[in-house]
Amino acid sequence: MNPNHNNNNQYPIDYLNQIAPQQKRPGASNKLLVVVAVVGVIMAFVVGLMMALGGSGPKEDMQRLAARMQSLQTISEESQENIKSSALRGINSNLNIFLSSAHHGIAEPLSNNGLDIAKIDKTIAAEENGAELKATLEDARLNAVYDNTYAREMSFQLATITALMEQIYETTDSASMQEFLVHTDENLQPIKKQLDEFNSTD
Fold first, then answer.
1. CA 110 to CA 107: how far, in whole Å?
2. Do 137 and 153 touch, CB atoms closer than 8 A?
3. CA 108 to CA 55: how far, in whole Å?
4. pLDDT in tens, 15-32
5. What does each C-alpha distance from 79 to 141, 171, 184, 186 come to in angstroms?
6. Distance (Å, whole) CA 93 – CA 8
7. What's the pTM?
8. Dihedral sign computed on CA atoms, order 152, 153, 154, 156
9. What are the tens digits of pLDDT across the range 180-200?
């Protein structure tokens, strides 16, 4: 994006330099280039500094992933009794096992990154407590559309987990975390596919 942006700005300047009086325009153009260069250097420095200090970025995402998997595992477990379809109960049982295993499995990669799974940041834990999802599911239960709503909502939640794992994978250099993410995604996708394909006939 930046190269094209620069080219678009550069052409009008070159064109004006060609048709304008040769004595006046170069001075103005040089001043503009100096200002642009200084701003560019400052922005590059700020971005570089943020990236250098951004070790908390991936670590925050790691905690968020652990908290989200834990809250979804709890919701999955609590929802089993509300599911009417035997097929969806089977899918949900596998989902619960997957989430429980993944939550336990992330403990070691977290530890390797200086994080304790038992001490997730309180703000992150609060944001990932699943309150909104619980409210949606309760509303679905009251309106007798629980199964389809549950399958749709949990599929969406798994999609957010996939996106979060991809983000962590791209921003961390932790081999143990990357290995965990690859293995977890391999186990997640078949369950998400089953949820996507589920459609209650009730």
1. 5
2. yes
3. 18
4. 445 555 555 444 546 666
5. 10, 34, 22, 24
6. 56
7. 0.69
8. positive
9. 999 999 999 999 999 999 986
